[in-house]
Amino acid sequence: NDVAAIQQFTNLAVATMTNSIFALFLALGIIFVLNWKLALFCLLILPFYYGVIRYFHPKIREDSHKFREKQSQVAGTLGEIFNGIKVVKSFAMEDLEMQRFSQMTKDNIRPELELSTRSYQMGSILGSFNDFVVAGLFIGGAAAVMGDQMTIGDYVAFTGYLGILFSPMMALSLLLQVAITAHTGMERICNILDIRPEIADRSGAFSMNEVKGHIEFEDVTFAYKEDRPAIRHFNLDVKPGEMIAVVGPSGSGKSTLMSLLTRFHDVSEGVIRLDGRDIRTLKYEEYRRNIGIVLQENFLFAGTIADNIRYGKPEASIREIRAAAEKANALEFIDELPDGLESVVGERGTQLSGGQRQRIAIARTLLKNPRILVFDEATSSLDTISEHLIQEALYGLVDNRTVFVIAHRLSTIQRADRIVVMEKGRIVEMGNHRELLKNGGVYSRMFNVQEVAKNGSLKID
After folding, report:
1. Tell me, what DSSP letter sits at residue 282?
2. Which of 34, 66, 92, 305 is the most exposed place for a label (fewest CB within 10 A)?
3. 344 to 301, 302, 352: CA distances (angstroms)
4. Which residues make beta-bridge pairs with 423?
5. Per-residue pLDDT tens digits for 138-151
6. How high is the pLDDT of residue 215?
7. Per residue in 376-403, pLDDT tens?
8. Angle of helix 2-34 relative to helix 152-193, nearest 10 degrees?
């Protein structure tokens, strides 16, 4: 809507301003020749025009802002309802959502009416004053004819050019209203375009040569809010090619830690190093290209399976795509589809199951061939068979890569080189699976609870 307002103004401005200004000055010049006294009377309208526009401009601009914001809210609500349509239907809340949307559209009418009313008021005042001035000029012209100061022919020509004079003035006043709406749209667009990401290259950022994958967390602290740190004085040294599992209760800081590693956020205190260099001093895009991320809910684009797998490497051949799909244990179901790799996945991948989407996401990451892999609860929402297939694919990726795995299901991480157990943003235990079981600490209790629940003997009152 904002872009459309600017486009409307642009289309009108070129033709209207050029023609109107030319006609305005031409008519005014001829009127001066015919009768300079009456022409000066015409110019009296200009201060009044300026005063009226000066009065209404901030009000129309404010109303335009309110109207645009309400439009955004209506569009946002509608999009939210469509995205959550399954929840709406499962709770039988269609009537409530229709009422909510209806109320929002009614609320949107008020600023729209206020905007239209102000624009109409300004146009009416300017139009009425135009009529007053024209009437005065007709009377003045008639008096000039009767006083032998103008011929009847000059009077007829004078009145004709009055029409040419005031028509472009009204056209320009209407264009002004469109310009105010366009200006509002431009401000809203610029508010978005002017946003600069917090994470960006520093001056003199280093290029990355061969990445080995040595990661160091040194006294890392991070807080979304100053008084509530999510990570507290975290220290960890990860060797190249090592597989690190990060576990802990919800809210312990596992995903936040991976967000810091992938530079979705920067640390509040401390430093994270890659091969001895602070990751904040490395070129952002180069650093990101060396990290592959597989999330719990991976986004697929509404194209083909091949398009989604080659997303990180657009020039990849079909052979490379198939090789990546095979390593991700995805080729078995892809080959069963009628169109194979050219099968369309649907919007957000809705034509595929959760396990199939995850394996395509793994294949996409594999084809990118990063030195560091991050699996953020990639199997937590999957069935046992899908989890096993993805787990096998995961272990097939470890070779010569530094791998971080965040998991709630502890059965998926038993082969990790080290398991880091977190609570409240700190490391409380660390070791391999057997060592942690022997310690009888937090990890051991978590593992035993999951085993009991899996075997069906856990009773919850």
Report:
1. B
2. 92
3. 9, 7, 9
4. 426
5. 787 788 788 877 78
6. 93
7. 876 655 566 666 666 666 666 666 789 8
8. 160
